[in-house]
Amino acid sequence: MPTKIIYDAEARYKFMLGVNKIANAVSVTYGSAGPAVMIQNVADGLMPIFTRDGVTVARSISCDDRAEDLGARMLRDVSGAVSREVGDGTTTAIVLAQSLSRDSMKFVEAGYHPVQLKQGMDIALAVVEKKLQENAVTGVNSDWIEKIAAIATKDEPGVGVLLAEAFEKLGLGSQLTFRLGNAREDVLGIVDGFEYGQGYLSPNFVTDKDRDIAVLDNPYILLYDKEISDLMDLVPILQDVSAMGRSLVIIAEDVIGKALSGLLLNQAQGNFKVVALKPPGFGDKRENRLKDLAIMTGGEAFIGDFSTKLEHIELEQLGEAKQVIVTAEKITIIGGHGDPEKIKQRVNYLENEAKIIQQKKPGDGSPTGNKHDFEELEDRLAILSGKTGVFEVGGISDVEIKERMVRIENAYMSARAALEEGVMPGGGVGLFNMAPFLDEIIAVNLEQQQGILLVQRALKSPLQRLLSNVGVNSEVVLARLEGENNPRFAFNTQYKHYGDFLDIGVIDAVKVTRLALRNAVSVIGTMITTEVVVMHVPDMSIMDGYSPEWAAATREDPRAE
Question: Which of 135, 142, 334, 379 is the right S-S partner for 193, CB 3.0 to 4.6 Å?
């Protein structure tokens, strides 16, 4: 395949065009008063996607120019990284990245060394992150959670109350899953469930492309501690599961080669619904984890040198659950069909094992080994004893429900982040307050100093963009905030009034804001230090003489001659 090479200024200019296309489309959704974006569905005839979620908008945009699309891709990755970790803050990251890219390109064109600029940006980032954590307001309560949820959901009534209830009943390490409801109102339910940190083996297993998750209702669950490489070994199980009109979750050491490609092909053709992933734990601990899963789901774990071959496994030996949700990072199993008495016995056994480790005297065994064994038992107990919340998102139509679901899920993750690291003034004010701290830094050279200045300017951009979206004179608001000299003083862009950020409900999670800034600085630092871009150019000559209209009319393809 031929290649195209782009150098220096041209490469960075192309990157900048791609960044601006993404940022200009996404930033209109910024803030509680930000309007929505309508995205044409890739499938003809289906309803368009209606969203106020920044990462959804970013993912929908691609550029015809391949070099521009590389810049756009970097920004899409920024928003995706923030979304995966903390849900909210995607648009903040994009607004920060656009400001950094615009100003940094000017300095690079003026002759400043990009590596030195990046080092200055990294110095500023470290200072701001430290100050954000030092100035965080901790002790988050249910009232704050409601206000955080209101901001993240564009002021959805009642969502914050349900999220606060979920945290109260489930705790900070709560497992809360979201699904389409059957009524106009939102409903929160607490059910038996658990999760662990392994995601699907291929993104092609995804059933909900808007949320990048696989959702299987009432599935069978195969627990297999060996590698599966031949699809034919799975055919009897798949036929039995399909005959029951059910789906299948495969938890195995690995699924590779023809087995993986065959599963993906059959799922794409709609023959059956399946998802494959790895078991929890590593080494000898994996065997115990699989046995725990078997007890939780009422199935059998096939471990070690078992006599039953894969193709001879019966449906009665498989586990079952009400619902399984798999993301790129984790699986959540809701309503496992395990026997409550057997689960209770397993819990009691593990609790006794944990007590034995705790009662060991100094010098009795390896302290490090004892600690690891105890932590492993605690983790297993948390899974066996776990409960999960199910948030059924209501609405009038599927379009409305899906759009609300994204925002409510973001609100949950934002509230969780607030409980972890505390809160700060929202609406861009918290970052704006960080700018004066960078005045105190003296870098080793002028170029690094300019890198610090780039971040200082970018810290003001989220607030300026929010004010622009609601038609407020930014100079007036900025002057008022600076004049107060109060780190808790903020401006509510929706109702256009000032006050203590907790009182007026303008609250951001420190972790969300911190990660948005970190990802923005990282991607722009990479962008400005790129000197050469090598791209593969596809050979389009194969399409010469091809007419889609003619091919559809004649059922012939001239390329086959």
Answer: 334
* Separation between Cα atoms, residue 282 and residue 288, nearest integer Å: 10
346 vs 537, higher pLDDT: 346
Query: What distance in Å separates the CA atoms of residue 291 and residue 223, rounded to the nearest whole number?
Result: 9
pLDDT digits (tens, 9 = 90+) for 402-433: 878 888 888 888 888 888 889 999 889 999 99
How is residue 312 written in tokens? 């001879």
Residue 138 has pLDDT above 50, yes or no: yes
Note the pLDDT tens digit of each residue in 164-212.
888 888 776 656 778 888 888 898 888 778 888 899 999 999 998 877 8
| 147 part of a folded domain | no
Helix, strand, coil shares of the chain, percent, nearest 5, are 55, 15, 30
Q: CA 519, CA 498: separation in Å to the nearest integer?
A: 30
How far is the first Cα of the chain from the last one, in angstroms, to the nearest whole number? 22
- Tell me the C-alpha distance between 33 and 509, whole Å: 19
Residue 475: domain span: 3-137+422-535
Alpha-carbon distance 349 to 328, whole Å?
A: 32
CATH number at residue 502: 1.10.560.10
* 9: confidence class by pLDDT, cuts 50, 70, 90: confident
Question: Could you tell me which of 206, 203, 223 has the C-alpha nearest to residue 214?
Answer: 206
Taking the C-alpha atoms of residue 381 and residue 354, their distance in angstroms, rounded to an integer, is 10
Measured CA angle at 134 (ends 130, 138), to 5 deg: 130
Which backbone phi and psi does 355 adopt, to 5 degrees? Answer: -65, -40
CA angle centred on 290, ends 245 and 299, rounded to 5°: 40
Amino acid 246: pLDDT: 94
Residues 389 and 437 in one domain: no
Q: What is the 3-state secondary structure (H, E, C) of 229-246?
A: CCHHHHHHHHHHHHHCCC
Here the tokens at position 282 are 């590593």
- Report the sign of the C-alpha dihedral through residues 375, 377, 378, 382, in that order: positive
**How many separate domains does the chain show?**
2
Q: Which amino acid is at 135?
A: N
286 and 430 in one domain? no
Q: Kindly report the number of other CB atoms within 10 A of residue 493's CB atom.
A: 26
Q: Report d(CA 91, CA 151) in Å as an integer.
A: 13
Q: What is the mean pLDDT of residues 516-529?
A: 90
3-state secondary structure 30-59: CCCCCCCEEECCCCCCCCCEEECCHHHHHH
SS3 552: helix
251 and 388 share one domain: yes
Average pLDDT of the chain to the nearest whole number: 85
The pLDDT assigned to 561 comes to 46
Nearest to 498 by CA among 519, 508, 484: 484
Distance, in Å, from the CA atom of 139 to the CA atom of 50, rounded to the nearest integer, reads 36
Q: Which of 28, 98, 24, 89 is nearest to 55 (CA)?
A: 89
319 and 336 Cβ atoms separated by less than 8 Å: yes
